[in-house]
């Protein structure tokens, strides 16, 4: 892998330079927030088109983005970059050709790419070539009708005992709504697998436990033991919090003995679950009994501290006893027997889900409809054939593979297993000599609820190396060109403490930490954390407390969203009245702050309507990107 020497006058960082030119193997770029990822992607594509040796045409690149808006932006920025290159070399017919090819280049979402494959090769499938994409409301109505019909047919079967046993196991006596929800969720989960039928059929097989199997041999037991161990460790940390309360001045010191007893008890549970058998851990929980807390005379110690210590002990006892109630009220043998009893019930559930999926497919086919999931499965069906129980590239896939010199995937952390299978089919080579370029940031993966699989990214990140060895190459882009150092240091301070392999599945280490990249001038700035609360009548208030809460005390009937909105409005007014100046990090130009310089980031858009109304009343211009309509 040859990377050209970086000239002295370029502004790209070393990591960005490597990301632009690395090739000859699969490349994974972990691009942190504000790291110039899009600029790097565009430059990589442009450099491939303008290089002297083996230049590529833009239609020989498969560029997969996460949204249509991202695809449109990338196409637009590529056009701008090509026009700049044409200014440098107006006689280049190659560059003019790239501009003419740009509109038909495959720069799109994966769904759009799959749609193009399905349209081009529809004759391979039993599919109406005049199909159209169903909208979500239309598809939901069809699914509801199909599911109702499938369940009604099951109830009217000659031998309905199986469906009744399933319903009795998962629902109340009132209705079977939970079964409908379960089937839909199971169908949705299966849809993101390359072979959904095999995946569904594997679920009941996990409960077909051999008669001689032990609990410790179950395939999921390691993950379950780890979960229990983590919960016990959390309870142990609560004992340390109790200790800190007890050793405070006027703290309940006699609780020190109680803490030691609780720690010995919980430590034994941690030892059993981490090193011993399930039977040994079961025996431990059967004999589990917390010691009676030491007696604390209220007249001797602070009552508030006594109560805090008691509350903390109640919390840890509840957590430990919750483990016992969830996993250790049945003997190991009984657990295995219950799994065997569940096998036929889950087989019924899987069969119903398969029937539902097939009937839903037929209903869409009758109407000439497909949904987004169909596009991916149809594309996979076209691009693969089965050989010895495995999917291998079809002749069409080999043609598609030959068409593209590079497969570039943006937001790779939000890819699911079905999409990964399609991408692996159309890319060339292995990881050590492939042509796949993946960009993303597992720390920014937020679509697991939509069945994205960030572990695909993480597995490659852990396996790929920074140097050209017998695998793919990984590059960390962690220089942030968007935010001031104070923002980045505060972010690193928080996440280095709360994010690790246990929480977040990745260590927030030096490679993951955000590095200041923008040349902001040095000045004394701080990151503020403001907690809004109603002042209790018997609490003493400092001048700062009064300043923050004065207006809020007058607005006890307001919703929390309105409290927060009015506080933000106050901060904005103060910034504007003080004629705050903003500085461009690159030009060093200074100008007065404007409203458009301010952005409000929210966890969700739940409060957006209240926020918008409060800003309107305050006379501060605000734009909110709302998805709801006028009458919602």
Question: Quick summary of this structure?
Answer:
52% of the residues lie in helices and 8% in strands. With 632 residues, the protein is α/β, with parallel strands linked by helices.
Structural class: alpha/beta
Strand order of the largest sheet: 3-2-8-9-1-10
Categorize the overall geometry: globular
Distance between the termini: 56 Å
Largest sheet: 6 strands, parallel
The poorly predicted ranges are: none
Q: How many distinct helices? A: 22
Query: Average pLDDT across residues?
Result: 90
**Percent range of helical residues:** 40-55%
Q: How many strand elements?
A: 14
Rg computed from alpha carbons, rounded to a whole number of angstroms: 30 Å
Strand content: 5-15%
Strand-helix topology:
Blueprint: H1 14-21, E1 27-31, H2 37-50, E2 61-65, H3 68-88, H4 93-101, E3 106-109, H5 110-120, E4 132-133, H6 136-155, H7 161-170, H8 177-191, H9 196-205, H10 221-246, H11 255-275, H12 278-286, H13 303-327, H14 332-367, E5 369-370, H15 372-383, E6 384-387, E7 390-393, H16 395-403, E8 406-409, H17 417-426, E9 436-440, H18 455-463, E10 473-477, E11 479-480, H19 485-498, E12 515-516, H20 543-553, H21 560-577, E13 581-583, E14 590-592, H22 608-618
Parallel strand pairs: 1-9, 1-10, 2-3, 2-8, 4-5, 8-9, 11-12
Antiparallel strand pairs: 6-7, 13-14
Helix pairs in contact: 1-2, 2-3, 3-4, 5-15, 6-14, 7-14, 8-9, 8-14, 9-14, 10-11, 10-13, 11-12, 15-17, 21-22
């Amino acid at each position: 892998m040859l990377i050209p020497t970086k000239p002295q006058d370029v502004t790209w960082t070393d990591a960005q330079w490597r990301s632009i030119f690395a090739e000859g193997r699969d490349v994974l770029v972990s691009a942190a927030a504000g790291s110039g990822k899009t600029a790097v992607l565009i430059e990589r594509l442009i450099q491939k088109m303008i290089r002297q040796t083996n230049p590529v045409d833009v239609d020989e690149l498969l560029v997969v983005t996460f949204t249509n808006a991202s695809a449109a932006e990338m196409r637009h920025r590529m056009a701008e970059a090509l026009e700049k290159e044409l200014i440098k070399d107006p006689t280049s017919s190659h560059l003019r050709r790239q501009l003419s090819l740009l509109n038909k280049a495959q720069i799109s979402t994966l769904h759009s790419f799959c749609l193009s494959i399905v349209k081009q090769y529809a004759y391979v499938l039993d599919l109406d070539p005049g199909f159209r994409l169903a909208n979500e409301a239309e598809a939901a109505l069809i699914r509801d009708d199909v599911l109702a019909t499938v369940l009604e047919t099951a109830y009217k079967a000659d031998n309905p005992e199986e469906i009744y046993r399933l319903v009795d196991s998962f629902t109340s006596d009132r209705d079977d709504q939970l079964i409908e929800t379960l089937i839909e969720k199971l169908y949705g989960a299966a849809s993101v697998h390359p072979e959904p039928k095999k995946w569904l059929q594997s679920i009941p097989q996990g409960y077909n436990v051999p008669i001689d199997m032990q609990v410790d041999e179950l395939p999921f037991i390691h993950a379950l033991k780890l979960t229990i161990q983590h919960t016990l460790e959390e309870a142990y940390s609560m004992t340390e919090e109790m200790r800190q309360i007890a050793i405070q001045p006027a703290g309940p010191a006699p609780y020190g003995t109680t803490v030691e007893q609780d720690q010995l008890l919980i430590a034994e549970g941690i030892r059993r679950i981490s090193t011993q058998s399930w039977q040994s851990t079961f025996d431990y929980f059967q004999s589990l009994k917390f010691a009676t807390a030491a007696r604390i005379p209220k007249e001797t110690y602070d009552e508030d501290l006594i109560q805090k210590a008691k509350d903390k002990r109640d919390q840890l006892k509840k957590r430990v006893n919750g483990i016992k109630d969830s996993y250790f009220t049945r003997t190991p043998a009984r657990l295995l027997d219950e799994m065997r009893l569940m096998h036929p019930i889950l087989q019924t559930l899987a069969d119903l889900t398969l029937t539902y999926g097939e009937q839903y497919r037929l209903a869409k086919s009758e109407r000439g409809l497909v949904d987004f999931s169909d596009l991916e499965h149809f594309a996979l069906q076209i691009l693969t054939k089965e050989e010895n129980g495995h999917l291998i590239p079809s002749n069409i896939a080999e043609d598609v593979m030959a068409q593209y010199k590079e497969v570039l995937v943006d937001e790779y952390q939000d890819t699911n297993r079905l999409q990964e299978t399609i991408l692996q089919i159309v890319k060339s080579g292995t990881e050590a000599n492939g042509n796949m370029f993946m960009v993303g940031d597992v720390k920014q993966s937020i679509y697991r609820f939509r069945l994205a699989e960030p572990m695909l990214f993480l597995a490659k990140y852990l396996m790929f190396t920074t140097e050209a060895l017998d695998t793919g190459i990984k590059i960390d882009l962690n220089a942030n060109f968007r935010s001031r150092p104070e923002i980045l240091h505060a972010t690193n301070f928080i996440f280095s403490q709360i994010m690790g392999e246990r929480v977040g599945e990745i260590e927030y280490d030096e490679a993951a930490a955000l590095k200041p990249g923008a040349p902001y001038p040095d000045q004394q700035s701080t990151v503020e954390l403001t907690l809004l609360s109603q002042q209790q009548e018997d609490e003493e208030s400092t001048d700062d407390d009064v300043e923050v809460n004065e207006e809020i005390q007058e607005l006890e009937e307001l919703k929390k969203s309105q409290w927060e909105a009015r506080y933000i409005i106050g901060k904005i007014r103060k910034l504007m009245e003080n004629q705050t100046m903003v500085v461009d990090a690159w030009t060093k130009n200074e100008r007065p702050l404007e409203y458009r310089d301010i952005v409000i980031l929210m966890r969700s858009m739940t409060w957006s309507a209240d926020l918008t109304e409060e800003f309107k009343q305050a006379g501060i211009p605000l734009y909110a990107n709302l998805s709801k309509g006028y009458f919602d």
